[in-house]
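Async update (no meeting this week)

Hi team, since we skipped the sync, here's where things stand on the single-chain job. The sequence we agreed to prioritize is pasted below, unchanged from the tracker. I ran it this morning and attached the output directly underneath so nobody has to dig for it. Comments welcome in thread, and please keep replies under the output.
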Amino acid sequence: MHPRLLAVVGVIIFCAGLDLLWQSRREAAFWFASYMHVFRSVLREQKSPAPPFAPEAAPPRSHKTLAMLLGMGLAVAGPLLIALSLTLILYPKL
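Output:
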């Protein structure tokens, strides 16, 4: 594969990852709030971490967790492909 084409594919993958992250931005707030709740309960030195939600209330349903994780993966894989293409351009004998 030509290095410049690899860079273009990396940019497209990075943009796709950013789009997925933007679509699941409310899900990120849900996970951050859940993490902070568990983190605070650990800091209070409780014997076992409290569940992130009260047992009598049903936890909110998360719909876009997979999209958020896939978006983060693509947002990391895109720059790696760009870095690989730059390496192949700068060092063509590798």
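Quick observations from my side:
The two ends are 14 Å apart (CA to CA).
The mean pLDDT is 84.
Reply here if anything looks off.
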